[in-house]
Amino acid sequence: EVQLVESGGGLVKPGGSLRLSCAASGFTFSSYSMNWVRQAPGKGLEWVSSISSSSSYIYYADSVKGRFTISRDNAKNSLYLQMNSLRAEDTAVYYCARDPTTVVTPNWFDPWGQGTLVTVSS
Amino acid sequence: EIVLTQSPGTLSLSPGERATLSCRASQSVSSSYLAWYQQKPGQAPRLLIYGASSRATGIPDRFSGSGSGTDFTLTISRLEPEDFAVYYCQQYGSSPGLTFGGGTKVEIK
Q: Do A34 and A79 touch, CB atoms closer than 8 A?
């Protein structure tokens, strides 16, 4: 069974940092691009970042560019999101999601993890 | 950036009825690169449709997608109790700047 499990969320002060992790299982992690998508409380979905299977191609939404860094460790079947200079508007549930295609630019997402909540507040 | 506008915001229907959800793009979505997701409260989104009309694995055939260019539709032919949820469209034609619509909530009338 394909499974994605996020961790690392929590409460952080504005300007602080947090590192999210996503553990993958049930598929050949090193073959797929991976993504982070977030959802503010009661709001819609926002794509955050994408990384290709070999980490050669990395993309960010303008809203997080320069503050967030996506990375992966294929040996550990893990995806990461380092979040710096956090703002109140970064408060959201963060989902990791697999791109099931072989194209390096992000496409559709399937499956998604259960998400981890990040709250930025003083 | 392509802006996706979903309508209506809320759709109130009874089980067994047909649901028609609209997703309109601010500019043409190349190659019908549009996906639909279902999200239930407290759960992650689930992929329903990709490529505007291809059903994802395990999705019942009462779900169908259609459209091209700037106008796309998700149709649920006969609503089952488990179909009441929020539905999002997403375009990936202008990737990496992909975007989601604001969602349509299908609620029980």
A: yes
